[in-house]
TrEMBL record:
This is Uncharacterized conserved protein, contains ferritin-like DUF455 domain. Residues 43-74 are annotated as: Disordered. Pfam families: DUF455. CDD domains: Ferritin_like. SUPFAM superfamilies: Ferritin-like. It comes from Jhaorihella thermophila. InterPro entries: DUF455, Ferritin-like_SF, UCP012318.
């Protein structure tokens, strides 16, 4: 029986351990790109039945966002907590990208759609490993601290809505990453931790691509339905994303990723722009 891409995605989603999940994710990505380059038999996309929630390791303990202790980033413990939160985001991102591949196989999409999300999943896997290496270099590890339980909510809410998923995950959550990463890089630069700075710089550079994939495929699907992308974006973010977007925005990087200001400013905290 030929293995399909959506089956491969489900295998990643159902692997609990972080390092095992990311190793499998990278192997599957390499297999997909070898097939796409004609160096191996083609891999059909197929359809699959992904779990509503991905498998997770026993640690970290997942807490309600308000119960996750806040630590000052100026202290060594605070920097470890910050990196731990980043590792958790990267692991969720690995699953989010495989989930969009696994869940919407019944919607016909150009092969480039799968190329983009498989590449993004591969990069998130690398990011998780880089951040874990940094944590271990500082004497900690992923799982040593509690983490956010809410991270998968965006995925569950949009399990039946591919455009909602694109609007909320790459175009809101990953775009937020572009806003906050430069400040994080500064924290680790001041602490004289060049390895962490280098890891975060890799992440920062590659995340622009993920937001751009979101914007590209969101616009593609709007075109298919003859819908106005900006209006549809506002409608979907208001439906699926609780709360307002937080300025300041990284307008330069958002622009590089194909996200224009009139998409996000009307959804911002304190905005009185109404349609
Ligand atoms: Fe990432
Ligand atoms: Fe990403």
């Amino acid at each position: 029986m030929t293995r399909t891409l959506t089956q491969m995605a489900v295998e990643v989603l159902t692997t609990a351990d972080g390092r095992e999940k990311t190793a499998l994710s990278r192997r599957h990505a390499a297999a997909w790109f070898a097939a796409r380059a004609g160096r191996a038999d083609p891999i059909p996309v197929g359809t699959a039945d992904p779990p509503l929630r991905p498998a997770r390791p026993a640690k970290p303990e997942l807490l309600n966002p308000r119960d996750v202790p806040k630590r000052k980033p100026g202290s060594p413990a605070g920097r470890i907590a910050l990196l731990h939160a980043v590792a958790h985001i990267e692991l969720n991102a690995v699953d989010l990208h495989w989930d969009i591949v696994a869940r919407f196989g019944h919607i016909p999409m150009p092969a480039g759609f799968y190329d983009d999300w498989v590449k993004a999943a591969d990069e998130e896997s690398k990011h998780f490993n880089l951040v874990c290496d940094c944590l271990e270099g500082l004497g900690s590890h992923y799982g040593a601290l509690p983490a956010h339980a809410g991270m998968w909510r965006a995925a569950e809410g949009t399990a039946d809505d591919i455009m909602g998923r694109l609007a909320v995950v790459p175009m809101v959550l990953e775009a937020r990453g572009l806003d906050v990463t430069p400040g994080m890089i500064e924290i680790f630069r001041k602490a004289d931790l060049p390895d962490v700075v280098a890891a975060l710089e890799v992440i920062y550079a590659e995340e622009v691509g993920h937001v751009a994939y979101g914007s590209k495929w969101f616009n593609f699907l709007c075109g298919r339905e003859n819908a106005d992308p900006k209006e549809r974006f506002h409608e979907l973010v208001r439906r699926y994303f609780k709360g307002a977007l937080k300025p300041p925005f990284n307008e330069a990087k958002r622009a590089e990723a194909g996200l224009p200001p009139d998409f996000y400013w009307p959804l911002a905290e304190g905005s009185n722009i109404r349609e």
